[in-house]
Amino acid sequence: MHYHNPTEFELAVNRIVPVPKQAKALEGKGFRLDGKAAVTAPTAEYGPVMTAAKRLQAMFPEQGDKTVTLHLEKAPFEARCAREGYTVTVTENAIDIAGYGERGLLYGVITLEQLAKNVD
Questions:
Q1: pLDDT given at position 29
Q2: How far is Cα 60 from Cα 32, in angstroms, rounded to an integer?
Q3: H-type helices in 26-77, by residue range?
Q4: pTM of the model
Q5: Does residue 74 register a pLDDT over 90?
Q6: How far apart are CA 86 and CA 11, in angstroms?
Q7: What is the mean pLDDT of the chain?
Q8: How many Å apart are CA 50 and CA 40, to the nearest integer?
Q9: Cα separation of 113 and 40, whole Å?
Q10: b or e along 51-87 (b: 16 or more beta carbons within 10 Å of the residue's beta carbon)?
Q11: CA 51 to CA 57: how far, in whole Å?
């Protein structure tokens, strides 16, 4: 029998609700969630996009030299439930959340919130 000791990343991903269909941890230095980042998001007066933007701005209330970008993009061909899909890409100086629909954008922000809580 072979037992696998899960990595910190695997443990954090498994605590996200619902558990993402796919998640990858790449090599390199991660983004420090220190509360200082320039947030850019689509303008919306109501709905999931507005909620996503407000949640991001609550996470990063102070302007800083790091960037957090929220945007809509076309889903990959193979995506199931495309309008609810998203990607969250974290690098040393930026976080990019792409939603394949308005709900996907919000779900991406919620995933980032959950990951941030699991890292602390």
A1: 65
A2: 11
A3: 48-59
A4: 0.81
A5: no
A6: 20
A7: 82
A8: 12
A9: 17
A10: bbbebbeebbeeeeebbbbbeeeebeeebeeeebbbb
A11: 10
